[in-house]
Design a protein that fits this description.
112 residues, mainly alpha, H-NS DNA Binding Protein, 2 domains, two-stranded antiparallel sheet, 3 helices, elongated
Length: 112
């Protein structure tokens, strides 16, 4: 991002913070109290794997997108904590699974 775009974004964010009553001190206090490693992830697979959206895209997401799924399908709502996959999932009906037998059906957990 060039310097001019960066300065413009900072001015915009300061303006929006003023509009809703957030001071730089409020923001600094929030950031100081956030626990280390509290990144909740931005995308989550059905198996519980998460990705923050930074760095290289994980294989599970690459495979889903190449199979025609939209990345938005895996996006978490803002503020949703990433939860680990449950060991027993009930109520799943796999008989109509369009990915049965494909690489998408094989999770990293199944290879262990």
């Amino acid at each position: 991002m060039d310097e001019r775009k960066r300065d413009s974004m900072i001015a915009y964010l300061r303006h929006r913070m003023d509009d809703v009553g957030i001071s730089p001190d409020n923001l600094a206090a929030l950031l100081a109290t956030a626990p280390a490693g509290s990144d909740t992830g931005r995308y989550r697979s059905a198996g519980g794997d998460t990705w923050s959206g930074e760095g290289e895209m994980p294989q599970w997401l690459k495979q889903a997108i190449s199979a025609g799924q939209s990345i938005g399908h895996f996006e978490l709502p803002c503020g949703t904590p990433a939860r680990p996959a449950t060991q027993t999932q009930t109520g799943a009906d796999w008989k109509n699974d369009p990915f049965a037998g494909s690489p998408l059906a094989r999770s990293s957990h199944a290879r262990q």
